[in-house]
Design a protein that fits this description.
mainly alpha, two-stranded antiparallel ribbon, about 65% helix
């Protein structure tokens, strides 16, 4: 039952053949595409989270996450070059391993895209509120985070009433209103039909790169070797708390979201067998180097040792206890530690005397991050839309607005899901939940590559994963290790979400599946954006 109902690959490839894309991209263009897609999101919003989990050892974390991304991307490229149609990992899995696993991948991608959008929205909110504060406009604490609400929930469910937790309950907020608002705005734009152009995206990439370059230039000359010791205060980590440099790598993985843009461009690439690996590896190396330089600047100038409780216990980033502890440290008159900052890079520049430049770095994040929210939510609507076309979700999910020609139902559902979690959860937790779904999807893609090599070795492949019997297992193992290094809650979120998905599948989707009913739908336009599609009958 698990491996049945494979969507015929020939039908999908017939769709791909109609696309007829011109092969025009070389290695340099692919590299720049990858750098533009990756740089910005995670480094702006997760630096403090990674520092709390690993201290200066987060530099190792960037390398680990980059390596796992590289081997996963090489596997992704092979399937993307064979099946260049809407649906991403969901479509690949459907074509190789069957409907049940494809459903689970599509269901997991909700965590990747919708919660990823929530995480970026919270990161945007933190920079927005910080910029207002720098301009002497103080946004009310009660509606700028949900720390107080989470602390009271923890106390209500029996957590020990430590002073840190009581501080958070007393002084924290109840909802992150700016994050909710930015998700609402993006949802409205997607329904209205406004998507960013290539020119706008290029400008935003430049804005992000200029901001990070300025940070590197100003901080590297001020490095202090003492700030790197101890280098790995939490060690390798364990499989329950999400600490250590492997646990930080599991969070930092979020900073590489977008690297699959290179993979999906394989069909438009000249000599893909040569240029796709070059584009992938070079873009990931460049991004990792930039991340390492930014991390070194932050660590070397301000220090990045994790904050512990009064009793010396580790505090999870974003937890109510840590919020209370950070508030107590600041109230004592001490400089706010890096790990306590909601806008870490800005905080570093302000602390070392570059307040004005720090303000502009924060402004760069405020300008650039909404486009990332938009891209993630748009990716989610494409996956849901494709699943609806396959009959696995209600046909209403594929309804197109009569005026705006956009899939307004699925966009509204995605936006509602994203704004609830953006309003209530901290950025670190949201990123980890998103990573859990991403890691599962990429592990399935790597598995699909191996299965298809065995089942259909003679199939034409525009790009073949080099040393596939080494690279694909490394990708699978890497995804499993990073998933295991997430905190217990994040692992349970994927398990619980998956269980809900299976219930929905067997009670609703399986009986309505088009493939199960013998309907093989070949879309006339495989580049099918929801805006150009038509509703189901």
């Amino acid at each position: 039952m698990i491996f049945d109902r494979v969507k015929p690959l020939d039908a999908i490839l017939a769709t791909a053949e109609k696309k007829g894309l011109h092969r025009s991209l070389g290695a340099f263009q692919l590299t720049m595409l990858g750098v533009g897609a990756v740089i910005g999101t995670g480094i702006f919003v997760l630096t403090a989270v990674a520092a709390q989990k690993a201290g200066p050892g987060m530099m190792i974390s960037f390398c680990i996450a980059g390596f796992v991304c590289a081997v996963a991307a090489l596997c992704y490229s092979e399937l993307a070059s064979m099946v260049p149609v809407a649906g991403s990992a969901y479509t690949y899995t459907y074509a190789v391993m069957g409907e049940t696993l494809a459903w689970m991948v599509g269901w997991a991608l909700v965590l990747e895209y919708a919660l990823g959008a929530s995480a970026v929205a919270v990161g945007w909110s933190n920079h927005f509120v910080g910029a207002l504060k720098d301009s002497h406009v103080y946004f009310p604490e009660i509606i700028s985070n949900a720390n107080g609400l989470m602390a009271k929930v923890s106390l209500a469910f029996g957590s020990a009433p430590t002073q840190d937790l009581l501080n958070a309950a007393q002084h924290g907020g109840y909802i992150n209103l700016p994050a909710v608002v930015i998700v609402l705005v993006v949802t409205g734009l997607l329904i209205w039909g406004t998507t960013e152009s290539a020119m706008v995206n290029a400008v935003l990439v430049v804005v992000k790169l200029v901001a990070l370059t300025a940070f590197i230039i100003l901080t590297l000359p001020l490095l202090k070797s003492d700030n790197f010791s101890p280098f790995t205060p939490t060690g390798f980590g364990n499989l329950t708390s999400g600490t250590g440099y492997v646990g930080a790598a599991a969070s930092i993985f979020f900073a590489y979201v977008g690297f699959d843009a290179v993979s999906t461009a394989a069909e438009e690439t000249k000599n893909p067998q040569r240029n796709v690996p070059i584009g992938l590896i070079c873009s990931l190396l460049i991004c990792t180097l930039i991340y390492l330089l930014v991390a070194a600047g932050a660590i070397g100038t301000l220090g990045a040792q994790p904050v512990t409780s009064a009793a010396g216990a580790f505090l999870a980033p974003g937890s109510p206890e840590m919020t209370g502890r950070c508030a107590a440290i600041v109230a004592s008159g001490a400089t706010q530690p890096l790990v306590c900052s909601d806008h870490a890079l800005v905080h570093v520049l302000q602390t070392i005397g570059y307040s004005r430049i720090g303000y502009f770095v924060g402004l760069a994040a405020i300008i650039a991050l909404p486009s990332v929210v938009l891209m993630m939510m748009f990716g989610q609507t494409r996956v849901f839309f494709t699943m609806a076309r396959d009959g696995l979700l209600p046909s209403s999910f594929a309804k197109v607005h009569p005026k705006f020609k956009t899939p307004y139902v699925v966009t509204a559902v995605t936006g509602t899901f994203a704004l609830v979690f953006a309003g209530l959860l901290p950025v670190g937790s949201l990123a980890d939940y998103s990573n859990a779904g991403t890691l599962f999807a990429f592990a399935m893609v790597a598995t699909a590559v191996l299965v298809l090599r065995r089942k259909d070795p003679t199939r034409k492949r525009a790009f073949r994963t080099p040393a596939v019997w080494i690279v694909a297992p490394l990708a699978i193992i890497g995804c499993i290790v990073l998933y295991a290094a997430l905190d217990t809650t994040s692992k349970l979120v994927l398990v619980g979400w998956g269980a809900i998905g299976l219930v929905v599948y067997f009670l609703y989707s399986r009986s309505r599946s088009h493939v199960g009913r013998g309907i093989i739908d070949v879309v006339d336009d495989p580049a099918m954006l929801p805006e150009t599609s038509h509703p189901l009958d």
